[in-house]
Amino acid sequence: MAYETLQVRTEAGQVGIVTLHRPKQLNALNDQLMDELGAALKAFDADDAIGCIVVTGSEKAFAAGADISAMAKYEFADVYGRDFISRNWEAIRSIRKPVIAAVSGFALGGGCELAMMCDFIIAAENAKFGQPEIKIGIIPGAGGTQRLPRAVGKSKAMDMVLTSRMMDAQEAERAGLVSRVVPLDKLMEETLGAALAICQMPRLAAMAAKESVNRAFEGALSDGVQFERRLFHAMFATADQKEGMDAFLAKRTPAFGHR
Ligand code: CAA
């Protein structure tokens, strides 16, 4: 499928890479881009050859937020009536394979929220994260008020959401928003290294691990632990559990069949 606002490719036949591509607008996220992103992510999710997906932007901007020129004229009836954001942004939450955000430059507003919807974030040294919506009379609308405090704690989240100040890559790593900070020219190399490592893992266990960690974010601890326990038990019904444990005990390399 051809996309106008994305560039899509694969690496080593196993990693799906989606590059946001509206360079003149710093990858501002409009409906077309979010529709295309949902379609591209779903296509990779359905492709048996793909074990991990990377979402990235340009050197200057991962994404500078939802497209303000598209939103400026919206009334309540437009956004509520057409279920703005929920209608297409939530597609990323249905992706079952691991999704890594490789962020350089600005990840602001919806751009920061999109990065946080991915499973983890690897940041280049020039990355800047922020939720500056308050400056344009709104609040974060794609989960920022929920995911940011879970990632960095209430105090920093309030600071960012209320003052609109940006967090640089080093602060983001200290605060737990990103998993690693790497030199800008190593961003894709490091991210692909992580993605390829995930691709070597048994596919069902990777999907179950992702689903279970996400439960920690979305519900009460006791529900999350119970959910995790059930998926943990279910792993014992897979061939890869037998293979993985047999290989460990036999001190040999496992040959996972993703079943
Ligand atoms: N929407 C639409 N266009 C945007 C945009 C956005 N979010 N961000 C940048 N652009 C456009 C600019 O209008 C500009 O276009 P023109 O060349 O046609 O004038 C172009 O991208 C380049 O931007 P700047 O000239 O502003 O570049 P800069 O380097 O001086 O500043 C910036 C970069 C600090 C990111 C600045 O562009 C900026 O503050 N952008 C807006 C950030 C923002 O408020 N994001 C939140 C949006 S609301 C939201 O996301 C809601 C939600 O939760 C879902």
Brief overview, please?
With 259 residues, the protein is of the alpha/beta class. The chain has helices spanning 31-46, 68-71, 76-81, 110-117, 144-152, 154-163, 169-175, 187-199, 203-218, 221-235, 239-249, and strands at 6-11, 15-20, 52-56, 61-63, 99-103, 106-108, 120-124, 128-130, 167-168, 180-182.
Essential attributes:
six-stranded mixed sheet, binds acetoacetyl-coenzyme A, four-stranded mixed sheet, single chain, alpha/beta
Task: Provide the fold topology.
Layout lengths: L5 E6 L3 E6 L10 H16 L5 E5 L4 E3 L4 H4 L4 H6 L17 E5 L2 E3 L1 H8 L2 E5 L3 E3 L13 H9 L1 H10 L3 E2 H7 L4 E3 L4 H13 L3 H16 L2 H15 L3 H11 L10
Helix pairs in contact: 5-6, 9-10
The protein binds acetoacetyl-coenzyme A (CAA).
What does this structure look like?
The chain is of the alpha/beta class and 259 residues long. The chain contains 11 helices and 10 strands. The strands form 2 sheets. A 6-stranded mixed sheet has the order 1-2-3-5-7-10, with helices on both faces. Strands 4-6-8-9 form a 4-stranded mixed sheet. Helix 5 crosses helix 6 and helix 9 packs antiparallel against helix 10. The protein is globular and about 60 Å long. The mean pLDDT is 95.
